[in-house]
Amino acid sequence: SSHEHRLNFRKSKEACLSYIQDALLRKQWKRAAEFLTCYVESLEKDYSREHIGPSEMIWRIGTEILWHHSQSSMKEFNCFMEQMKTLGVKRYLKVCLEHVFHLLCNGQIDEAYQNLSLAESWRFGEQTAVQDKEMKLIEAYRGLLDYYSWSKQKNILLEHSEDGFSDLAVEQEMHSYFRKAAVNLKEIIKIPGVWDVFVKCYVDLLEFYGDHNEARQVLNEYAYNSKFPSNPNAHVYLYQFLKRQGESKKSLISALKILHDIVPSHELMIDFNTMLQKSKKRKKRRLGLEVIFAALDYAGWKENAKAWSCLARQVKQIVISEKHLDWIKQEWDSRKDWWPAFHFSRYLAKRNWQENKSLSYEKALVAGILLGKDCKYFKYVSHQGCKAQLKRFRILKKFVNRHNPVYLRISG
């Protein structure tokens, strides 16, 4: 009860937490568990009058330890989570959600669904209204599991239809899951946020039953509503839907243009470039060159043979026609100081030649045009190709030598 006793007690608790943190950082799960046990025991002996709310700390730390501890079991984890649910009503739904995630990660779908149903029926005075967002998530994840059950029944029904049989009971059960899933999924995606998995599942339900207008409306809202955070996947889903529906190239290009502005390194930039190159409009072909140059600015694209093929094809077309060389010059001016080391070193030439000759061919063509016939990358690859008596490399060498004046014009 003395001031000195309370001070020492507080210091010992802080020290214990420090030891727990150190053990967690070092991934010493057994040691962390021992210190957490000491910490919990010390709280039980805390006679100070200060308000202490350690339940969330114990929940977070305990969950992390049980997740990684070599000797922990699912039974222990379930028991721990049930105890955590009773420690504080303010965190009840959050603990329920984390418990459900753990059950799902361990393949216990039915148990997860049961826990969601119990959480959904939970009520505790004013806390119910305060935790409205958490309750929406509980309902949404239950909808997700209803979708999972619907998908399983759908596959059974499709298998039966291939054999020439129809199963009315399966079809009725499938429709029941559809109705339950659709209601909850539709509700969560009305709230501004990132709801990728929920949107994909809801759109799948709508498309299966032929409600394409509703699916389009959902995806447009998800992609273009300014209240929602910027999300590249929203535009990917819209593009994929439009493509499935056989929409015009104009619509597809419009969807990918926004994706390009957000994520210029997205894998769909290959599709975007291909569509733009096929356009009769000069403005779109110009954009296509910008798109593929921008994609190749990223390390993840350095050895993407398709991307280099797209760039090589367009650069070759421009060089042969001798039109729009200014397009290449404009793109190259901002890259000529760093692309040579990034893409066209002798080291990369050797490695690309050994690992992927098609890639080295496309890169050598681009290197030869942008850096001239004396470029290290072009010289090494063309020499190796001619040495191996590969006809396409002899033609490549002649092409670059013949159009070397283009390099002089591009380099200024």
Q: What does this protein structure show overall?
A:
- This protein is mainly alpha-helical.
- The chain contains 23 helices and no strands.
- The longest helix is centred in the middle third of the chain and has 31 residues.
- The protein is extended, with a radius of gyration of 30 Å.
- The relative contact order is 0.04.
- InterPro entries: SL1/TIF-IB_Component, TAF1A.
- One of its GO terms (biological process) is transcription by RNA polymerase I.
Keywords:
single chain, 412 residues, mainly alpha, 23 helices, extended, SL1/TIF-IB_Component, TAF1A polymerase
Quick summary:
It is built from 23 helices and no strands.
- Helix and strand pattern: HHHHHHHHHHHHHHHHHHHHHHH
How much is the radius of gyration in Å?
30 Å
Question: What's the helical proportion of residues?
Answer: over 70%
Oligomeric state of shown chains:
single chain
Q: How much β-strand is present in the residues?
A: under 5%
Describe the biggest sheet? none
Shape type: extended
Average pLDDT metric? 89
Helix count, DSSP H or I runs of 4 or more residues: 23
Which consecutive residue ranges, at least 5 long each, have pLDDT under 50? 47-52
- The rounded distance between the terminal residues' Cα atoms is 84 Å
Number of separate strands: 0
Helix and strand content put the structural class at mainly alpha
GO cellular component, one term: RNA polymerase I transcription regulator complex
InterPro entries: SL1/TIF-IB_Component (IPR052669), TAF1A (IPR039495)
Protein name: TAF1A polymerase
Organism: Rhipidura dahli
